Amino acid sequence: MIRRVVLLICFVLLSAVPALGALRIDLPESAMNGRAFLVTVHADAQAPVKVTWGDKNISISVVKTDNEYKGVALVSLPRDFAKKTLQISAVEETPAGVNTVSRTIPVEHKKYREQHLKVDRKYVELSKKSLDRHYAERATVRSMMESLAAERMWDADFLRPIPGGISSEFGVQRFFNGKPRQPHSGIDLRGKKGTPIKACADGMVRIAIPHFFSGQSIYIDHGQGVVSMYFHMSKVLVREGETVKKGQVIGKVGATGRVTGPHLHFGLNVSGVAVDPIPLFSEKK
Ligand SMILES: [Zn+2]
To answer: Going by DSSP bridges, is the β-strand pair 179-180/173-176 parallel, antiparallel, or unpaired?
Structure first.
């Protein structure tokens, strides 16, 4: 009898101690092409964790929050992602060894629509000078995207930069004067010229100069692979290298660059992939 009680006590004690490598990930029930979703990683100690999916990976900080160790990552899927399932793994490196946990979720496939627009010929048939300028600007953006801050400055709810409704949604395949273009990499939000534009999250301004296509543009690095973009502004109120807070006014709506009227093009890039920002806004409508 005594032996049985001792055994029982031992068992109770054992079950109270977290199992070695108590690594766990919280995921949504499904993913969607052209969207990003939040992954929460729970660990039993503070250790570097890498979240991997497809050919992507991101290092995250797992820190003590509410009496447990956890960290978050945004996982992104490109608009043209065709696979039916997605495997997401968390890899934790501890002095005792490497722990890995993997889960697979189904991927829903959204069909993005087409849009036909008529624009001034000078924006479709570019001069060599304009094209050279565009390529140089694109190269600058690409190299910036390769040197992003490792530390996360964003939180799960991104702020809608202006209150206006959507005039053109993410992912639309555009045709300018009948010629196919890159699918829409962000959303167009309605706004009168001069409407204040707010930063969607804390971050650092990396680019704040006029561009041929996108006009007066701002790129903000929010850390851990997340970059937001604000195009066609009439006024830019921040400088490159400046730290901004979520909700801070960074510029004003305008009609600079390749546009037919004033609006804000807002884009969100997560681990090198353009995603629909709407599902990540705290205020979706
Ligand atoms: Zn746009």
So the answer is: antiparallel
- Calpha distance 207→227 (Å, rounded): 11
> What distance in angstroms lies between residue 86's CA and the mean position of ligand 1's atoms?
29
CB under 5 Å of ion ligand 1: residues: 188, 265
Q: Report the separation in Å between the CA atom of 152 and the middle of ligand 1, taken as the mean of its atom positions.
A: 26
Q: What is the pLDDT along the chain (285 residues), one digit of tens a residue?
A: 555 555 555 444 444 444 445 899 999 999 999 999 999 999 988 888 999 999 999 999 888 888 889 999 999 999 999 999 999 999 998 888 899 999 999 999 999 999 888 877 766 778 899 899 999 999 999 999 999 999 999 998 999 999 999 999 999 998 888 888 889 999 999 999 999 999 999 999 999 999 998 999 999 999 999 999 999 999 999 999 999 999 999 999 999 998 889 999 999 999 999 999 999 998 766
Give the H/E segment covering residue 220.
strand 215-223
**Token pair recorded at residue 158:** 């991104």
**216 alpha carbon – ligand 1 mean position (Å):** 13
CB contact at 8 A, 207 and 144: yes
Q: Which helix (H) or strand (E) holds 109?
A: none
Give residue 169 CA to ligand 1 midpoint distance, Å.
8
39 CA → ligand 1 middle, Å: 28
Residue ranges of domains in the chain, CATH in brackets? 2-108 (2.60.40.10), 114-280 (2.70.70.10)
